[in-house]
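Milestone M4 deliverable, item 7.
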Amino acid sequence: MRRTAMNRGLAAWLLVPSLLWLASCREKPVPDVRLVDQQGRAVTRDGLLAGRWSFVFLGFTSCQTVCPATLAQLVAVKRSLARQFPGAPEPRYLFVSVDPQRDTPARLASYLAAFDPEFVGATGAPAQIAALSDALTAFYQVGAAASAGQTGVIHSGEVYLLDPAARTRARFSPPLDPDLVARRLVSLMGSFGT
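Output delivered:
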């Protein structure tokens, strides 16, 4: 009986990440990284991440669970935002691949087309990806595949929200609640003055 109550408590605790957002204590902008998007264009902090609210998610195209689920949830966030707040500025949605050896711009373009053609995919040199990851406090590790069918890549699944000054304002843990994320975004936009 005690174990059942403990299991229920654990199950309730595991649901909390989908309902919470964590404001960042940092007011410092992310570094001026240099990545390449799915069209082969440069992605920089000032060129893409600054000037508009942005959701940033680090993953890789061979991911079979977390990445497709999170990208689908970001599509739902976009729809929820349009439905609940039709006049709100639309944020960017940036998927950064931590696996640049396999995730070429062409592969990113093909992968993201299955979710939303307006989503931006980017990757770059490992040092540039690491600089962005460190600034966001995201975790990933790329290693050799252990056997056929394994990717050798692990990563955290959080989605980061950057303000128009490219500063981290919130971190959302999956699974995302699209309506809650949309409401939180609009609330933060209001407090920022956008």
